[in-house]
Amino acid sequence: MSIKIKNTEAYMENYAKKLMMLLRKRMNTPVQSRTARGFLNPVINNTGESAQRIQYNKQDLGNGLRIDIVGDDYLQNIDSGGVPSGGVNITEIAEWIVSKPLGYKDINGNRTTNYSKYSATHPTILDIAKRITNKINTQGIEPTKFITRTVESHLKNLKVIAPVVEDVKKSVEDILREAGFDLKGKTVRFV
Question: What is the spatial distance between Cα 38 and Cα 54, in angstroms, rounded to a whole number?
């Protein structure tokens, strides 16, 4: 006996797509803690690359369905905060500094240059990268909870019962036939 889950599958797939869109939107919204600390670019998604890499993977398990929403590993670290497992690499931070079209403020709050014109091996860039790496590896990242808040606020919109009922209604005749009932000329009414 099996129930076809076409409606439930479509509903969950659309829900995953909506959740991806909401996560991307949240990544482009200024984060209050970053704005308060004087970040000139207080959004999580400065270049747009991370948001575009948020995808969903759908897998038919034969007896069920699995939908995973996946993205860059470090987005989970930004969401939950703390010291990333394995720490942070100075070279990766240096590359991040020069690849982002960011403006920075120095320790006195003065706006500094955009470092995209430098190479990741420039002494100034490496010095900044070492400071950032040391801070992240010792104090961690302040959590933004952008994933957690998005999922929690939209979880209440997840109403799976209606598509499941539709799937059961469409499959009930098949279930009754498999159980040995003869349904020729008979009407099954759902109340």
Answer: 27
Q: Which two tokens stand for residue 68?
A: 């995973």
Decide if pLDDT at 134 tops 90.
yes
Same domain for 33 and 11: yes
**pLDDT at 90 exceeding the cut of 90:** yes
Nearest in space to 92 (alpha carbons), one of 32, 45, 132: 132
Would you tell me the crossing angle of helices 146-155 and 6-27 to the nearest 10 degrees? 140
Q: What's the pTM value of the predicted model, to 2 decimals?
A: 0.65
Contact predicate 157/14, CB 8 Å: no
Closest C-alpha to 120, from 130, 112, 110, 111: 130
Phi/psi of residue 172, nearest 5 degrees: -60, -40
What domain range includes position 155? 1-82+141-191
Tell me how crowded residue 33 is: count the other CB atoms within 10 A of its CB. Answer: 13
Give the model's confidence band at 191: pLDDT under 50 very low, under 70 low, under 90 confident, else very high. Answer: very low
45, 117: one domain:
no
